[in-house]
Amino acid sequence: MLAMKILISLQLLGLTLLCVGIFHCQAWPRYTFVVEEAPYRRLCSTKNILTVNGQFPGPTLHAHTGDTIIVDVYNKGNRNITIHWHGAKQPRNPWSDGPDFITQCPIQPGGRFTQTIIFSSEEGTLWWHAHSEWDRATVHGAMVIYPKKGATYPFPKPDAEFPIILGEWWKEDIGQLYNETIQSGGDPNISSAFLINGQPGDLYPCSKPDTFKLMVDYGKTYLLRLINSAVQEMLFFSIANHKVTVVGSDASYTKPFSSDYVTISPGQTVDLLFTADQSPNHYYIAAKAYVGGAGILYDNTTTTAILQYNENYTSTSTPCLPNLPSHNDTKASVHFTGSLRSLADKNHPVDVPRNITTPLFYTLSVNTLPCLNNSCAGPNGTRLAASVNNISFVDPSIDILQAYYYHVNGAFGTRFPNFPPFLFNFTAQDLPLYLQTPKQGTEVKILEYNATVEIVFQGTNLVAGDDHPMHLHGFSFYVVGWGLGNFDEDKDPLKYNLVDPPLQNTIAVPVNGWTAIRFKADNPGVWFMHCHLDRHMSWGMDVTFIVKNGEGLGAQILAPPPGMPPC
Questions:
Q1: Which helix (H) or strand (E) holds 331?
Q2: For the chain, how big is the Rg over CA atoms in Å?
Q3: Beta bridge partners of 354
Q4: pLDDT at residue 540, rounded to an integer
Q5: What does the mean pLDDT of the chain come to?
Q6: β-bridge pairing 269-275 and 112-118
Q7: Mind listing the pLDDT tens digit for each residue in 239-264?
Q8: pLDDT-above-90 percentage for the chain
Q9: DSSP state at residue 199
Q10: pLDDT value at 434 more than 90
Q11: Phi, psi torsion values for 136, nearest 5 degrees
């Protein structure tokens, strides 16, 4: 009884102590994040951007599997902000997850919030980013989770490792871009450039002197921790004349496989080994957009960095570019993603749910809403929207977690459908216009504690078919199947991979295709799921899950920390 009281007191006080067996405690590492404006010059012009600690990209956090860290976030910027720790499962601790109006209200200018990040089984590369409007364009950074102390990588230790963050840059202010897009009801302006570690690279104006350079020694092997922080685009990535070996994705190890290129979705991470085994020279590292949907506007430029050998040699005048797939090469995109397999060895076993208690079928659609006098910038004067199962999510006025925890009535509904309201040929070329209009609402899906869940995501061709990188907060999930076209409930499950499916937190549902995932709902709390193309998220392609408490203290949401931002 005494131990129970001590444990409850520690939770309520939010103390930064890690207690093992109650009486043996160690201090948690603590970091300070100051969100503030800073001037940055790109593409021949300077603008103020939101940063963390004045850095772009922001600082890298380091931890070991099973660690807990504390981050004090101070908002000294000019607008509301939240920070999300992408891929950290945060067991029983949704309070620090970060999506605005889902698990917290935003940190207002002049405010602060202390967030506790609990790592459990994650091992590899994750990242943190703003989760309010589209501020993650500049407010983001890497999180590196090493094996437990005394443990090693399941591959030969690399000679060095580097985070490689892919991003997007707009000449205009990102807050202004967001507001203009929401007000107009149309597509956002395409980005002005893609970035590698914050720099556009040689192929853009006024950029060559600051191109990121990766310095290597001949014969050595390097680990690249690749992150796609782009706001609106999936990307192809490659290194000229060098193959990469994929060894992990989303902080989970994979069976190694060699590839000339990588497909990486916004939100996703991929861990890559490569050996500097080519003739000493300069080689371009490059990334460009992959866009599977027809008629979708996109930034067709290419960002570059330079892989530069340290030896004495005379370099060629211009580095060679890698052979990246074409912008609309869906076959190349799904080939890479479909090659991922969990390592599934004795030290990294898989635990794929077999007996599904909660089967869900979710359609993912771009939609339109009517506008007065057809005055919006969407098709035929409509307003662009997006939906899951024909429900376009609307943010509440109070965050869902606090409303759930404190039993605030009327903040959300609990009738999110398990299946779409209309069955039709989801991927047909010509679909009736009446299907384009979704319902708007703040509906959540309730999951029983320890439910075994299968979600089949089905992309539709309403308005414009597109890839949808879906991210689930609070969990990793097994990707057990995927395909192009409509899901066949009789045939496709027979082809599921239940032996070594990849364990991910973000997965791209292919354009006019489907993806099946499975997970166990063993993390009580409120957890967001959304498309990580931010235009789709802002248009309403979102679902909020409430996982009910289980029996016993270890199966219940932790008490809220002090100092939650006010609504």
A1: helix 330-338
A2: 23
A3: none
A4: 98
A5: 94
A6: unpaired
A7: 999 999 999 999 999 999 999 999 99
A8: 93
A9: B
A10: yes
A11: -65, -10
- Are 33 and 113 in contact by the 8 Å Cβ rule? The answer is no
Summarised one tens digit per residue, pLDDT across range 521-565 is: 999 999 999 999 999 999 999 999 999 999 998 999 999 999 999
Under 8 Å between Cβ of 561 and 95: yes
Closest CA to 63 of 130, 143, 142, 162: 143
Cβ contacts of 425 within 8 Å, gap of 6 or more: 431, 486
Query: What torsion do the CA atoms of 149, 154, 160, 163 make, to the nearest 10 degrees?
Result: -90
The two structure tokens encoding residue 199: 């720099």
What is the rounded distance in angstroms from the CA atom of residue 467 to the CA atom of residue 43?
29
How far apart, in whole angstroms, are the C-alpha atoms of residue 469 and residue 460?
A: 14
State how far the Cα of 538 lies from the Cα of 20, in Å rounded to an integer.
42
Concatenating the DSSP letter of every residue in 522-535 gives -S-EEEEEEESSHH
Provide the 3-class DSSP secondary structure of residue 340: coil
Query: What residues contact 239, with CB distance under 8 A and at least 6 apart?
Result: 274, 283, 284, 285, 286, 307, 322
Q: Which helix (H) or strand (E) holds 7?
A: helix 2-13
User: Which pairs from 200-205 meet CB under 8 Å and 24+ separation?
Assistant: 200/42, 200/43, 200/169, 200/303, 201/286, 201/302, 201/303, 201/304, 201/305, 202/284, 202/304, 202/306, 203/301, 203/302, 203/303, 203/304, 204/43, 204/301, 204/303, 205/43, 205/44
Nearest to 342, CA basis, from 144, 142, 502: 502
Give CA–CA dist 65/251, Å, rounded. 10
When pLDDT is cut at 50, 70 and 90, the band that residue 26 belongs to is low
Could you tell me the sign of the dihedral formed by the alpha carbons of 15, 20, 21, 24, in that order?
negative
Which token pair is 169?
């840059």
Q: Give the whole-angstrom CA distance, residue 323 versus residue 77.
A: 41
Phi–psi pair at 10, nearest 5 degrees: -60, -40
Is residue 5 pLDDT above 60, yes or no? Answer: no
Strands (E), 53-170: 61-64, 68-75, 83-86, 112-118, 124-130, 140-146, 160-169
Is the separation of the CB atoms in 136 and 99 below 8 Å?
no
Bridge partners (DSSP) listed for residue 469: 508
User: Is residue 11 predicted with pLDDT exceeding 50?
Assistant: no
Q: Which helix (H) or strand (E) holds 182?
A: helix 174-184
pTM value is 0.95
Question: Per-residue pLDDT for 9 more than 80?
Answer: no
Residues 6+ apart with CB under 8 A from 120: 65, 66, 89, 91
Only one residue has tokens 């020694």, namely 217
Which tokens is 366 given? 């771009």
Residues linked to residue 117 through DSSP beta bridges, in sequence order: 69
- Under the phi-then-psi rule, with left for phi > 0, alpha for psi from -120 to 50, and beta for the rest, what region is 90? left
Phi/psi of residue 315, nearest 5 degrees: -80, 155
Residue 526 burial class via C-beta count within 10 angstroms: exposed 0-12, middle 13-18, buried 19 and up: buried
